[in-house]
Specification:
Layout (H helix, E strand, L loop, with lengths): L7 E2 L1 H8 L3 H9 L7 E4 L2 E5 H9 L8 H6 L1
Antiparallel strand pairs: 1-3, 2-3
């Protein structure tokens, strides 16, 4: 009974959250660096907001230093 509806986002809304363009969003998906959307119909796809938020929360919080890169 306590279920809430999942917010579904368009490509433009996701791109805005990522501060990028829809074209770059689709490049990330093709490269396997971002979750694929849910196919609602032939020409309609959406992303679950929770998937986008989870992906953003899992981003590294700092840029590696040169010393860190030498260890890799």
């Amino acid at each position: 009974m306590g279920e809430t509806l999942e917010q579904l986002l368009t490509a433009q809304e996701v791109a805005d959250k990522l501060r990028t363009t829809p074209s770059n969003l689709y490049r990330k998906i093709k490269a396997g660096k971002f979750p694929a959307p849910i196919q609602l119909s032939i020409r309609c796809v959406r992303w679950k907001e929770s998937d986008v938020v989870q992906w953003l929360n899992n981003l590294p919080t700092s840029v590696p230093s040169e010393a860190d890169l030498e260890l890799a």
